[in-house]
Amino acid sequence: MVLGMGMGRKVRFAMLLIGRAINDSVSFVVFTILDLVDLFLCLVYRVADFFIEAEWKSCYCSSSSSSSSSNSGKILVSEHGESKIVSLSSTKLRLEEISDTLYRRPSLLTEVSKLTINELKRLKLDANNNNNNNVINNNNNKGTTFMVNSTIVEMLQGKIGGNNNHNHNLNSHVRIPRWSDCDCKFCTCWTSSTKETLYVKSEGPKSDLAEENENVLFIHGFISSSAFWTETVFPNLSNEAKTKYRLFAIDLLGFGRSPKPSDSLYTLREHLDMIERSVLEPNKVKSFHIVAHSLGCILALALAVKHPGSVKSLTLLAPPYFPVPKGEHATQYVMRRVAPRRVWPLIGFGASLACWYEHISRTICLVICKNHRLVEFLVKLITRNRLRTFLLEGFFCHTHNAAWHTLHNIICGTAAKLDAYLTVVRDRLSCDVHVFHGEDDELIPVECSHNVKAKIPRAHIKVINKKDHITIVVGRQKAFASELEQIWRNSSTKT
């Protein structure tokens, strides 16, 4: 019997190796083809944007520019032998908040391209750098040289999204979506208002003066919406909880019914500012519990670090925390972990399409987001309404610009910051930390939650058997709502 068990393990191990080899081989072929397809779509969209919006639109396929910053708030940008000086608004954006994964995604095609033109570019860059130094010295500016993609420079200047009539109606202050984005009433309910705040679904006591009332902020994950909470947790809370807690579920910037500005880079600061402006400030929230899922966990940690004395409890579901090995480039490492360029599992394949391919992901948005009403109808027809409607709405109601930049600037761009955030939560915050993870989560592995536990020893980890990235809540909403109430009660007792 022992011999038979040993043989069985060897067979399973051999099958596992064969399966990995097949997955690797097929993935190499598929993603090499996708590299070429994305390059072709780059040309297609450049032409389409020009004819439809009367303006050439830059993309992140453009090469990086050699730039130099100065104390005056201006940077000198040099690319393709030409130089220009542009101004930055430090109150709106900082260049270090932009992930380099937006424009540096190594592939076989890009590596071959670099090898063929590297020598020609080296000679040009040497000459340009000499010219740049002369210009900076003549202007008496002491700056730092860095690399920045030309598309980022254009977005900083407000060129993407443009100021033409196709994108802005200056008389009525109504922003018109790009041609590849949906313009239905649900998706553009924000365009007719000049109020720059997020869509917030709130429930609970209306008075903000009652001292016994507490606040709970719910933050959804990537390509989702506030309905992830309002359709699951909110209806299953007890009457006692509904009378004691003010519940705030937001649609993040660029998703659901919240604003989707075409000139935004959707950085961490922009997301946090909008949360504060939409929930904390107008509702006079001084202390609060946080419940966050997936990408929302990063925003939750950043918010907790920014308001360390205000957080009463921190509940994280499937936090995407990948400790970066020494010597690895943080943003690139996390991008490979989240989007491994593999055809299996399917959810990993989908993440790879969304993360590695700017133009393929835009095409997917064009097909399913712009035509989401039709797609929703077909999905319901095929599945006989077995899929939850609110999940479809959360998945479809965003723009490519919002999804693309949020994915890179939040998940990848904060890779080097999460260690520091968790350290602050461990050392400066006294609140309880609870982490939930689905055992079968193929997008964010369970090890991520154990990594959080290793960083914050007091964190309570609960792995839910036979649940994945979504069913950790959907399908067990009653149990989860009960668990949340217990967390809030315990936290309130301690304070």
Report what the structure shows:
- InterPro entries: AB_hydrolase_1, AB_hydrolase_fold.
- This is AB hydrolase-1 domain-containing protein.
- Residues 216-325 form the AB hydrolase-1 domain.
- There is one protein chain.
- The chain is of the alpha/beta class and 495 residues long.
- The protein folds into three domains: 20-63, no CATH class; 73-105, no CATH class; 200-493, 3-Layer(aba) Sandwich (Rossmann fold).
- It is 46% helix and 14% strand.
- The chain has 16 helices and 13 strands.
- A seven-stranded mixed beta sheet has the order 7-9-8-10-11-12-13, sandwiched between helices.
- Strand 10 (288-293), helix 7 (295-306) and strand 11 (311-317) form a beta-alpha-beta unit.
- The longest helix has 52 residues, at 2-53.
- It is globular and about 60 Å long.
- The model is unreliable at 65-73, 75-93, 132-146 and 159-174 (pLDDT under 50).
